[in-house]
# Entry
Amino acid sequence: MSIPLLSLQGLTKAYPGVVANDGVSLDIGEGEVHALLGENGAGKSTLVKMIYGLVKPDSGHMSLRGKPFAPSEPRAARADGIAMVFQHFSLFNALNVAENIALGMERPPAMRDLAARIREVSETYGLPLDPYRTVGDLSAGERQRVEIIRCLLQDPKLLIMDEPTSVLTPQEVEILFQTLQKLRAEGTSILYISHKLEEIRTLCDSATILRLGRNVGTCVPAQTTAREMAELMVGSALHTPERAGRDFGDMALDISGLSAPAPSAFGTALKNVHLAVRKGEVLGIGGVAGNGQDELLSVLSGEMPSAADAVRLAGRPIGRLGPVARRRLGLLTAPEERLGHAAAPDMSLTENALLTGSVRQGLETNGFLNWGKAEAFARRIIESFDVRTPGPDSAARSLSGGNLQKFVIGREVLQEPEVLVVNQPTWGVDASAAAAIRQAILDLAAGGCAVVCISQDLDELMEISDSFAALNEGRLSAPRETAGLSVEEIGLMMGGAHGMEVAHV
Amino acid sequence: MIVLEKRPQPSRFWSYATPVAAVLATMVFGGLLFAALGKNPAVAIGTIFWDPLFGEFAFYYRPQILVKGAPLVLIAIGLSLGFRAGIWNIGAEGQYIMGAIAGAGVGLAFYPLEAWYIFPLMVLGGALGGWAWAMIPAVLKVRFGTNEILVSLMLVYVAEQLLASMSLGLMRNPEGHGFPGSRNLQQYESAHNGELIAGSGMHWGVAAAFIAVIFAYVLLNRHMLGFHIRLTGEAPRAARFAGVRPSRLILFCLGVSGALAGLAGLFEVAGPAGQITIDFNIGYGFTAIIVAFLGRLHPVGILLAGGLMALTYIGGEIAQGNLGLPAAAIQVFQGMLLFFLLALDILTNYRIRPRKSEVA
# Structure
């Protein structure tokens, strides 16, 4: 058997209170696309951070082509041919592509030479990119190309990709896969982190599955069903939300001809948005991040006012009403950013329950607060939604992402909304919590509430929504019934490949 | 090596223990300073902290502490509301002056009429004067997005010029033989903010300071508006999501802090100072910023901090007089107290641990 490119033996890393990796071993061969699978919090990020020299293992060792490998910092890992594309881009919006790439280099060449190199590499791998475009104007897919090309310029032996497709349309995913296959053909190994099983089945040669920091199995994805892999990840049989047969009622929320300017230089303007949701209906809104999701939520929550009759709640114009007045009428919202937007990080859960609950739960009389009632409401959220926390006095920031998300969603669901608008309800939440949140949304809808669910997780939208629309550069496609939509149709609604073409070489 | 590790949530124990630890640390290091200057440290520390309260002449010094502390607390309470919400009124000194001018103006306009309603009207005038002066940065910020720190600070110097002009011109005492300064309100029965209990130092300003502490406590802990103020300071985006209108909050916070500073000015000019003079203001408005932060922007904390600040002023004066300590040494001592209070505050949010040796 040939020596693997990278071999990990018994890597262990513990943080206070949690063992992130516990004796993880795996081998990545030359020219192999190796998938690293696991739920959020399974230890995938810690493992790749150790390979990339960001974190030092407590014990265990790594070897690269048979030689001991212990990078002390990312620079050392890069020097040994390891490159990584992070999930969150580290790019400067105000600089152009070539300048951004030069910033990450040890000794950047002259700008003109670098631009020529970028053009050359990008075309070789089917990822066309203009080196002189400003990054702030690029789509998420194009920004990812910048990161990939930054890595490819180092001529890596191993390319680590952390959830690369979460920001891409299906067509863009297709382009990315062609690039990765070309890299593999040239002998570059790829460590591919994802929890999207179908992708892994089409792309990867082998897969390592992590659960709670342990290696729980290795498989050949093409010969394993998605369900088997999912059950290895979760460690138990999957529970898919149930949907009752639907009967839609009267019009609940009606948006017509809504336009709103971009709130900041790199925000997105909403252009002539139309949508309608009836009682009991779940409308899923897909789209790549940064295409107007945050702005649409602000317009609905009342943070961003609009023309009065552009937004109607049960026929009543509410475009000029603020958040409190809208809550009183039954329009509740849950923004994407948990810390700092949906919740105040340093305030207790009781105070955070008060944040949106004061009107509908009667937590104030003439402006005077009823702390007893607020605490009881917080307790009710914690119990109903299984929020893991010592109690309602804990600060919001002391909760893990998934638990805080359950709290934030639970806070709105328990207020019995007429219309609920959620943005990325299960982002960064583990599978069982995500299933619970989706079930809560479906139960609400079954009880006659109209739901608008904005999400980038297409699987989630397909699972819970009755109709589907997509945001693309601030425009909303015409909603269509979810049943019977094909992936290609969804991709086209999301804006296809954003006008990006594959370079044919 | 030691490292600082962020606590999952602020430590309740340390938020109470740090002020005590800071006072102790100041005593130790201040004692070393006084020893280096050749004074007995125990005597010096005792003179500053003990004599004003319990010493032989405490009957004279104790009222002084109230007189000095009251305007500091009154102004700091107002400032703390804005600071909690991230609205920075740095110009309380100017609002203090304008309150004094407006309030004294009301009183002088009635001179020599004696009537019960004159003093209440002066109080109203003082509050309105400070409020109006604070509305200038507030309205400019709301309408044009100007920086309230710069505008409110600059207006202090405008107010000082106005004060000089008033004491030399419009408000100059016609029977004052041409000396600058207004009539002395202490000699005008209806306008005098005298001691409520003789010899106690308690004047209406002290009472107002206590009322303001209670008012601020209830507002911040029991009322939606106070909750919104705290929320805006902690997470501005979450505050907008909760339905807070930033412009209203700016008008409210700057207005209240201006009105309270104006009140402090009125009580001072009608009481301990007695008249409008060129050098009427002695920096209460700026010191109150320190008092507000020293008190952790908490009403009760501000009450204690104002008292402590006044104590070190009075005690420092005694130490200068009795022990011949240089004024600079007293200022260093006061600076130490501030330094330790703010530096030890880090323990509330962080814990100190020894760095573990890392495994390669």
Summary: The interface with chain B takes residues 56-59, 70, 72, 301-303, 322-324, 327, 333, 335, 337, 339-347, 351, 354-356, 358, 364, 367-369, 371, 394-395, 397-398 of chain A (CB under 8 Å).
